[in-house]
Write a structure and sequence with these properties.
This protein has 228 residues and is of the alpha/beta class. The strands form three sheets. Strands 5-6-7-8-9-11-10 form a seven-stranded mixed β-sheet, with helices on both faces. Strands 1-4 form a two-stranded antiparallel sheet. A two-stranded antiparallel ribbon has the order 2-3. A hairpin with a 2-residue loop joins strand 2 and strand 3. Helix 3 runs parallel beside helix 4 and helix 4 crosses helix 5.
């Protein structure tokens, strides 16, 4: 259900545009696609390994603790099998309000993916769940995003496969990646935000002068690329 600012429902007037999504989707709520996907992964040749996008972990939030634990463990098993096929895995996080589920994702899923995408709400709650200072202001500036993301990298296990985090909000995009692992992080963040702007503004052409690209390297470990 989507509505515009000023629309009425009885005596109520919407103060802002928004949408409300509701469903009874047991397939996604229980991650039932994992088993057929695992069969596909085990049947493919190593040279077929490419990049895959994984999402939907947030759908587990309404389930019991036992079911959450079982499906997170199953997802971790499938991700390990994908990594054995030399696959690159991008996890797109979505809104989660359960500290238990968020910590389970951080401990069991994040170390197995190579790339992570999230916005200010998701990064903020992840920071809050881990007790990282400054999480509540993470959407306000690039420096606050850098602080929380760099702390996330520090808390991951040494053997973690995660080498790239793409933060996106309405005002700016930030990619923080381990230096030397990803070839063109600056081009990646620029392409991403320009594509978003083009679609949001419904413009065939984007004025490049309205954007600013900034790249910083921390020693020889991490690089930060920002597009505003």
């Amino acid at each position: 259900m989507e509505y515009r600012r000023g629309e009425r429902w009885g005596n109520h007037v919407a103060s802002r545009a928004n949408r409300f999504i509701f469903s009874h989707d047991r397939t996604n709520a229980e991650l039932k696609a994992l088993e057929p996907w695992e069969k596909y992964i085990n049947s493919m040749n190593t040279e077929e390994g490419t990049t895959y996008v994984v999402s939907g972990v947030h759908m587990l939030e309404g389930e019991s603790d036992d079911l959450q634990t079982a499906r997170i463990q199953k997802l971790a098993t499938v991700l390990r099998e994908m990594r054995e096929k030399d696959a690159s895995i991008h996890l797109e996080l979505a809104s989660i309000s359960s500290v238990r589920l968020m910590l389970s994702c951080f401990e069991n899923i994040l170390p197995l993916v190579t790339s992570l995408g999230l916005n200010e709400q998701e990064l903020g709650f992840l920071g809050q769940s881990l007790g990282i200072d400054g999480w509540e202001f993470v959407g306000e500036s690039v420096s606050k995003v850098e602080k929380v993301v760099l702390e996330l990298f520090k808390r991951l296990p040494i053997q973690s496969a995660l080498t790239r985090i793409h933060f996106h909000t309405l005002s700016f995009h930030v990619i923080i990646a381990k230096d030397g692992v990803w070839k063109t992080p600056s081009a990646s963040v620029a392409s991403g935000i320009l594509t978003c702007a083009r679609r949001a503004c419904e413009d065939e052409e984007i004025n490049i002068s309205n954007f600013h690209l900034h790249s910083v390297t921390y020693g020889n470990k991490l690089c930060v690329c920002v597009c505003v």
